């Protein structure tokens, strides 16, 4: 679902605007905009944690590093994906392959984490 990627890019824009927008509040605002009629989509944890994990690690341009999530796995997935994209940027066009590489072939279903990483990558919002 591309909307989570769009929400991630929008959340970065909200943080950069200032107005005391933390990454957590910016994500919450962006997913309400992206999914105005779906509370379950607004509350989906995996894409949120992937976004906040990247922010927490200081890897998102214009977003200060900090403590934004308790998730370890989704943060790890996002950071691994980012490293894989640095090695092979063409992976951004195949999020299924990217996910399989992130989880090293383990049978684990994705939950929009790669949409977040891919959108931020494509928008040139990730730091090396």
TrEMBL record:
InterPro entries: DUF6979. This is DUF6979 family protein.
């Amino acid at each position: 679902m591309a909307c989570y990627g769009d929400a991630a890019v929008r959340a970065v824009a909200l943080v950069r605007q200032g107005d005391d927008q933390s990454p957590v509040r910016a994500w919450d605002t962006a997913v309400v905009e992206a999914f105005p009629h779906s509370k379950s989509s607004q509350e989906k944890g995996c894409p949120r944690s992937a976004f906040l994990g990247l922010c927490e690690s200081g890897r998102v341009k214009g977003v200060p590093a900090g403590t934004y999530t308790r998730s370890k796995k989704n943060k790890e997935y996002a950071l691994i994906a980012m490293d894989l994209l640095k090695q092979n940027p063409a992976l951004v066009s195949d999020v299924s392959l990217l996910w399989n590489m992130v989880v090293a072939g383990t049978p684990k279903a994705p939950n929009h984490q790669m949409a977040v990483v891919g959108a931020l990558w494509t928008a040139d919002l990730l730091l090396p």
